[in-house]
Amino acid sequence: MASRLSARVLALALLTLLAVPSLFAANGRIAGRITRADGSGIGGVIVQIVELSRVELTDSDGNFRFDAVPEGSYTLSMVAVDNAVNENVTVAGGQTARVDKQVDWQLSVAETITVYSASRRTERVVDAPAAVTVISEEDIEAVASSGQAARIIENAPGVDFTQSGLYDSNFNARGFNSSLNRRILTLIDGRDPSVAFLGSQEWAALSVPIDEMASVELVRGPGSALYGANAFSGVLNMTTKQPRQNPGGRLLVSGGDLNTRRADLRHAGGFGTEVYYRVTGGYQQSDDYARSRNLTVEYTVPCTTTGQINCLRREPVPLELTEVNIRFGGLRFDKHFANTSVFTAEGGYATIEGPIFQTGIGRVQVTDVERPWARLNYNTLHWNVGTYYDSRVAERQIAMASGSGALPGSPGLWEDSSNLHAELQTNWGFLADDRARVVGGVAWNKQEVDTSDPTGFHTLMDSAKDETQQSAFGQVEFDVTKSLKLVGAARWDDSTLHEAQFSPKGALVFSFARNHSVRYGYNEAFQRPNYSELFLVAPAGAPVNLAAAAAANPASAPLAPALQALGFSNLRLLARGNNDLDVEKVKSHELGYAGIFGGKVFLTVDLYKSNLTNFVTDLLPGVNTAYAPYVIPGSLPAPVQAGLTAFLGAALGPNRGGLTTVGGLPALVFSYANAGEVDTQGGEIAVNYYLTNNWLLDFNYSHFDFDVKSAALGDRLLPNAPENKYNLGVGWRGSRVDAKVTYRYVEEFDWAAGVFVGTVPQYEVMNLAANVRLTDMFGIGVDVSNALDNEHFESFGGDLLQRRALGFLSVRW
To answer: Which CATH number applies to 2-105: 1.20.1420.30, 2.40.50.100, 2.60.40.10, 3.30.70.1230?
Structure first.
């Protein structure tokens, strides 16, 4: 009933949206773009219709727009720092007046940075009510030849970044990273491409060349008030380039270490009727860092007992595939209307073979994955409505720890999942000069997950599952004075898998001087358990023969027949979900400063203190109340019962609590639970110093500390993050040459994620990227990750990383 009601509400909202343009038919519009002499847009310019006291801010590409402007003549005032220019414009009913202005203002990069993600509206970065990192176009292009999109933010302040295989990258902000991390919501043009079963990202399935990104913003800190579930630690918002603003084509061909061969293609153009298109495609074939562990392990000793840490378990089977193969394609159409509205229809498809991923039940190799998706969106100045569909079909993934999918008779891990989402958003300004601004919206989401193989056998859950979600959100900003801004926001999320959640947010932003501000913010956020944590039904490892182990020891040999009879000759190790899990929650206080000095130095300082509760533990024995403890049959003689009790306690150690009965036979069950409360506190300082128009120096340092208030017995509740880390970069931005060297230092830290528990030694990584534009058509470059070839691992159980040097050729037309 609730689902049908929410669908009706959404349909009504869509109909309302379609009727909105007719309300303004008698009025006109003003739209334009402010650029430098080289054609690049200027962000952060204040554009005002003087006679109406209406104000807009140009976005990162210099665009601005006013809807519902009465017919008449007006003066546009355009102001940026100490620069100002006026332009006269006449508006006719039902028409759009264009004002494209080229200026010769001497503005620094720092003074033109705008962001969208912190408030779901464009604003200058120094005015944002959250800690936001903006990745430059040059830094995006620097990693394009590698195909590793996650590397875009590996050097961002406050980010705990770990890489295992080429495409097994995980990151979080401010501690508590993990394998298959999902605590940062990732959006591409508003679409969440995460794997429905796990909630984590599959970076190999990006389906668009990396350098097609127009902007990448990372909001650090809880973001559920505007973005809902899983914006627990932040939001990574990625936006691709509009075909109209980026016509022409590009072919990027790269190759190098790990036998890499990669090609990315894009072409955009128009049909002369305000309809534009973009075609993308790509292919990669390469080796990976991963190696088989059936005979030896890479960098530590094999595990010999249960519960042992700082060791790697041998896997019963070798890797099936030793190469990574990726293919993708996409097609986009944009229809631009006279009222400056845009309708977008696009879709894409990717296939993936070969990557290895760390999971709670051990490594998993992806052998055959298909990722189709589609998106529709209609955008006006005050309204945006969109819907998308994302799917994943994975056939016979191999669980390396148990051999499932590779050993004879084992089914492998199958997944057929989909995510259907629709959202309506609006934004309005009120009072003179838009002193009050409102953002609001509603959303609906439907997920379906089926893990059965072609025979109908369920490989990861006991049956197909689904979830329906509905949400409503809103934010109000009010300029109390020209220097003080108040922000309040809240979101309500309901789901068929968890109780309704209310996520509030409040902030104060005080601009005490031009280009200088301090802010205080309070946020609450939540992370929902994924399908794996709720419903997992899978092997946790290969079965153990305790009867044979007892027979091999003279002291316990008399117990071997009893163990054999009771079924301990094939003791199953099982991973089971817990459908009684509650959502994880965080409450966070944050104090920040952002300032620009002399137009050349951009400095941010952010301090935070958070309380995290209801942690979903790693797979642990004896925490799921649905499985009763194993009881030795009372029909056995008392001496045998006593002997079995002692033997099982010694053989299973801390895992003894997970011994239970499943299907009438003994099994060792590992499951999840809500347990733990942690206080975290820390800070980040970041400096971008534009030494000249060409030289850029950037540095950031992050400190993190935590205090565990409570934890489940047997759980190593660790943040999987160092106490201290820093990044340093030196770059050159020229008319023909871009080059940058980055250095990342990470202090030693402990890691615990599922079966992988151990210490990650301190490591350093230096990356080098250079791009030379030989002509307007041809360019060459290099991308060298881990340039000093510092062999290391970044998550315990992850692959050993070495240098990867790639060269590339780009052709533009």
So the answer is: 2.60.40.10
